[in-house]
Amino acid sequence: MEPMTGQRILVTGVTGWVAGPVATSLAAAGNEVFGVARFKDPEQRVPLEEAGVTPLAIDLASGDLSAVPADLDLVLHFAVAKADNFDIAFKINADASADLMEAAAERSDRLQAFFHCSSTAVYAPAGQEPRVETDLLGDSHRPMPGMPTYSISKIAAEVLVKYQARRLGVPTVIARLNVPYGDTYGWPLFHLLMMEQGMAIPVHVDGPTSYTPIHADDITASLPHLLSYADSPARIVNWGGDQVVSVEDWSTYLGELTGLTPTFEPTTATIPAIIPDLTLLHEAGFASSVDWRDGFRRMVEASRPDLLQ
Q1: Cα distances (angstroms) measured from residue 218 to each of 65, 159, 239, 250, 303
Q2: Which residue in 279, 283, 299 sits closest to 291, CA to CA?
Q3: Would you call the peptide bond into 188 cis, given omega within 30 degrees of 0 as the criterion?
Q4: How far is 300 from 308, CA to CA, in rounded Å?
Q5: Pairing relation of β-strands 113-119 and 172-177?
Q6: Per-residue CA distances from 213 to 11, 64, 241, 247, 251 (Å)
Q7: pTM above the 0.85 mark?
Q8: Do the strands 32-37 and 8-12 form a parallel or antiparallel pair, or are they unpaired?
Q9: CB 254 within 8 A of CB 207
Q10: Each residue of 255-304: pLDDT tens digit?
Q11: Which of 191, 203, 236, 255 sits at a 20 to 30 Å CA gap from 6?
């Protein structure tokens, strides 16, 4: 599938892990990209501007979306809050998503699609059994410290986005992202830093703690394939890399790269294994290209080259 080019695209959450690299990659591909965040620190604008992204300071939780540009072709909505308070989590993750859809639809009669980044956190865990898009939803992230509202508020966001897609007639795809990582970010990098400090890595007692990590390169490359599902009513598609890898395995591999020795703490106070079934993503013609071992080596080389053996 041809990469996206020549589009007017709004990307939210561009100061976050996933959306920033997406926005800069799309700008490099010849799109006019507007990057939305609060930008409390003006310095956060600089790398985006240097990469050809136009920063827009919008607080989605405020309800003031007057700065949303007109005549957009695409909206890629990645902004998310990991709040302790359910009222805040619902306001930012759910209400703001619906408000953004309406604002974009009102300002553009050429809006091709609304892309909503959800999470496989919405699934009820089932061990090593891959989750299909119609499987039971649940509260998998509540046990994780600092994420008591995440699963429920992401489910609420999906409900409102589906409602708006039907009400407004906006072609919409909801992509349930598994474990994203890149050369300079990701949960595995956090585990590497824990290893450096001699801290035990939490793994679920019902192990192995398996996921399908997807590299930033494949995140951007998969977007046209995911957008091919945009429709009204909205479609839901699982999103991840092709390889199933556990926290235990990737931490052991990071140890091989660095000489650090991982230790593990089996617990129920962490996220259990969630493996998405990627049949729909594959049927759209996408297969991930970055082997997880290569991607993790790149991550260490870019972020902590001093730790490489």
Answers
A1: 31, 27, 10, 18, 19
A2: 299
A3: no
A4: 7
A5: parallel
A6: 22, 35, 5, 10, 13
A7: yes
A8: parallel
A9: no
A10: 999 999 999 999 999 999 999 999 999 999 999 999 999 999 999 999 99
A11: 236
Residue located via tokens 């308070």: 85
Q: Which residue has the tokens 């809050």?
A: 81
DSSP structure class, residue 56: E
Question: Distances in Å between the alpha carbon of 8 and those of 21, 29, 139, 161, 219?
Answer: 17, 12, 36, 21, 19
The answer to whether the CB of 154 falls within 8 A of the CB of 122 is yes
Paired sense of beta strands 113-119 and 185-186, if any: unpaired
Q: What is the pLDDT of residues 279-290, one digit of tens each?
A: 999 999 999 999
Give yes or no for a contact between 8 and 69, defined as CB atoms under 8 angstroms apart.
yes
Q: How far apart are CA 280 and CA 135, in angstroms?
A: 14
Regarding the domain delimited by 8-182+213-242+275-289, which CATH topology (the fold level of the hierarchy) does it fall under? Rossmann fold (3.40.50)
Token pair belonging to 64: 């003031």
**Domain boundaries of the chain, sorted by first residue:** 8-182+213-242+275-289
* Pairing assessment for the beta strands 210-211 and 245-246 based on DSSP bridges: antiparallel
* CA 190, 191, 192, 193 torsion-angle sign: positive
pLDDT band at 1 (very low <50, low <70, confident <90, very high): confident
Q: Whole-angstrom Cα distance, residue 186 to residue 216?
A: 10
Distance of alpha carbon 294 from its chain centroid, rounded? 20
- CA separation for the pair 40, 221 (Å, rounded): 30
